[in-house]
């Protein structure tokens, strides 16, 4: 009976996540809130959480930018294939470009569910298309170099941001 | 299992996420591990792209050189083994002989027969009728050598299954598993496997082929079935090439 009384008295709950915690505990074992800490500890907790939230928001922006890059790539590649077909009747280029364009679209759409792998595969696909073009025509490697660097940078930032916030 | 705080050394008998004494997070940081895996995957892919470019130009420069062929295959094997050494413990487990399961053994023999014939004739049809070009005859590429069938089988049917399975279903699969779920890993390895074949048209058949190999590797946790399927598939392609090459020669 005495033990039960002690148990009742010594339990409280975290004011942030409502997890039951013992009164002698300073910090919540679930969310780390300093329930019995000083004002300075509470301020640090909130500052840390705000920083995390900012990081997530920043990562979210980078992921959205990478997704837009994938959609833009899809549009450019399909358009280029169609234009080439009307100019040179190049059916092989049209089919290849439509396939690659559809893949970019699919990866862009997949970023809402699996951003890390979708952007990573988009980046690898882009690097491969650069290399294939360079093999057939080496001068293409330096054509639109700044545009290529931008795309790689956006996709790279998207991949690492998705990796940093993945739970 | 007891958990202790790295900061204040308090020991916890229960599973807690934060130290109740000093507020230190007790969750293992997986961000660092993920970033390392991501860096390795990107390095792996970029190095293989550069290798593919170098190999392409070497083949263009020396189309009839056994030495160049051996050098390129050796570099590829060394690169794969080098990357695999980074994760050798996990990879070695994939070479344990699996328990014989007749269902998968039968599938490993029947499926590549089906895939090889289907792919050979559909790809040939697409290339001749749609793209008005001809796919290279793999066997024909070795007729400048003595015993061309031996070299064709070695360089097309034996070495690629061994090293490509190790690279994609072994090393890359393990690294991707650290980043994403098992299902997504199967899809991603199949996609990358298809990409490195450098033919967007071939994505149509290499992607499903890679998905099946990835699924089998995931389900049975071994590379052996994948190697067998890959070998039989490539071997049949070579034998059809051998047959068509000699038939064409007889007709002439």
Describe what this molecule looks like in 3D.
The complex is a heterodimer of chains A (167) and B (252). Chain A has 167 residues and is mostly helical. Chain A folds into two domains: 7-43, no CATH class; 56-165, no CATH class. In chain A, 73% of the residues lie in helices and 4% in strands. Chain A has helices at 2-10, 39-88, 91-110, 115-136, 145-165; strands at residues 11-13, 20-22. A two-stranded antiparallel sheet of chain A has the order 1-2. In chain A, a hairpin with a 6-residue loop joins strand 1 (11-13) and strand 2 (20-22). Chain B is mostly helical. Chain B has one domain (30-251). In chain B, 70% of the residues lie in helices and 2% in strands. Chain B has a two-stranded antiparallel sheet with strand order 1-2. In chain B, strand 1 (3-4) and strand 2 (11-12) form a beta hairpin. In chain B, helix 4 (102-130) packs across helix 8 (224-251) and helix 5 packs antiparallel against helix 6. The longest helix of chain B is centred in the first third of the chain and has 31 residues, at 31-61. Chain B is elongated, with a radius of gyration of 23 Å.
